[in-house]
Amino acid sequence: MTSYQFIWFLLIGVLFSGFFFLEGFDFGIGMSVRFFAKNRAERDTVIQTIGPHWDGNEVWLITAGGAMFASFPMWYASLFSGYYIVLFLILVALIFRGVSFEFRANMQTDTWRNFWEWASSIGSFCAAFLFGMMFTSMIQGVPIDKNGDIFGSFTTYVNWFSIVGGVAVSLLCFIHGLNFLRLKTSGELRERAEKWSKILYPVLLAGEVVFVILLYLTTDFFTLKPMSTWGILIALVIFTLAAWWGAQSSHDWASFIASGLSLISVVVLIFNGLFPRVMIATNSANSILIKNASSSPYTLHLMTILTFTILPIVLIYFIWSYWVFYKRIKSPKQAIE
């Protein structure tokens, strides 16, 4: 394995980490439109919190997919063909969620406005759930032949571990969204989001215990990398407890940062367990390795130069956009007063 191959494996992990940190609260806000907000005025406020950001946050996913295609074409080909139906459903969920914000704002009847509000919430939940299901099913090991082709059955993708993983990621995103609401709103919405967080964190901790048990039973993470796996899982629990403490003591920033780091910990856990593989096969001889899946050294060298030239500009823009819209939004009752 060359240094460029290692760098690009790390960069793809960073891109997915950024996606889940930023898009995670977007998914949570989307779910909150119907599952949390009580009336139209509150739903307007909830959607307004991510109005300037949600489409920019999705760029992290597009960039991660593009980087995978350019740096590890064999990984891209195996993953995207083997998980074609799952990724297609994710795309449908993201499309419905994306257009729901625009269509809802232009609907003249309550019936269609309600339809697009439900499209936002269900699309956000399905996208988060399917991402969690895909990644957790992937790390169990999938049937791969010597050419890198996946020939899985229904239970390859849908099983107890993948379902628990999907639910866990969905719940993490929902709580992350509630923590973002606490940062961006004041008054009744913020207080209710804090109350819900206090209730949901014990449920999340119980889910994490179940996830760890199934991770131990269905993957080789604890056999091949026991120390790093346990270290990351302990960090995940610590971040979850820190976020819960933030909810209990009204430290909004602490809760938001900690819940985001919890999502990043899940990504780190997956990439740590994958390394030095990019796809885990049920027959270990057919697992796809980083050193065999990458593009040519020249391609990786050129991509590295371009990435580290453009990346600072992109990061400056993201920081600036969040700084411009950092102020809290008043809850509907406060706005009327």
TrEMBL record:
<dbReference type="GO" id="GO:0009055">
    <property type="term" value="F:electron transfer activity"/>
</dbReference>
<comment type="similarity">
    <text>Belongs to the cytochrome ubiquinol oxidase subunit 2 family.</text>
</comment>
<keyword id="KW-0408">Iron</keyword>
<dbReference type="GO" id="GO:0019646">
    <property type="term" value="P:aerobic electron transport chain"/>
</dbReference>
<feature type="transmembrane region" description="Helical">
    <location>
        <begin position="83"/>
        <end position="103"/>
    </location>
</feature>
<keyword id="KW-1003">Cell membrane</keyword>
<dbReference type="GO" id="GO:0005886">
    <property type="term" value="C:plasma membrane"/>
</dbReference>
<feature type="transmembrane region" description="Helical">
    <location>
        <begin position="157"/>
        <end position="178"/>
    </location>
</feature>
<dbReference type="GO" id="GO:0070069">
    <property type="term" value="C:cytochrome complex"/>
</dbReference>
<dbReference type="GO" id="GO:0016682">
    <property type="term" value="F:oxidoreductase activity, acting on diphenols and related substances as donors, oxygen as acceptor"/>
</dbReference>
<dbReference type="GO" id="GO:0046872">
    <property type="term" value="F:metal ion binding"/>
</dbReference>
<feature type="transmembrane region" description="Helical">
    <location>
        <begin position="6"/>
        <end position="37"/>
    </location>
</feature>
<protein>
    <submittedName>
        <fullName>Cytochromed ubiquinol oxidase subunit II</fullName>
    </submittedName>
</protein>
<keyword id="KW-0472">Membrane</keyword>
<keyword id="KW-0479">Metal-binding</keyword>
<keyword id="KW-0249">Electron transport</keyword>
<feature type="transmembrane region" description="Helical">
    <location>
        <begin position="300"/>
        <end position="325"/>
    </location>
</feature>
<keyword id="KW-0812">Transmembrane</keyword>
<dbReference type="Pfam" id="PF02322">
    <property type="entry name" value="Cyt_bd_oxida_II"/>
</dbReference>
<keyword id="KW-1133">Transmembrane helix</keyword>
<dbReference type="InterPro" id="IPR003317">
    <property type="entry name" value="Cyt-d_oxidase_su2"/>
</dbReference>
<feature type="transmembrane region" description="Helical">
    <location>
        <begin position="115"/>
        <end position="137"/>
    </location>
</feature>
<feature type="transmembrane region" description="Helical">
    <location>
        <begin position="254"/>
        <end position="280"/>
    </location>
</feature>
<keyword id="KW-0349">Heme</keyword>
<feature type="transmembrane region" description="Helical">
    <location>
        <begin position="229"/>
        <end position="247"/>
    </location>
</feature>
<keyword id="KW-0813">Transport</keyword>
<feature type="transmembrane region" description="Helical">
    <location>
        <begin position="199"/>
        <end position="217"/>
    </location>
</feature>
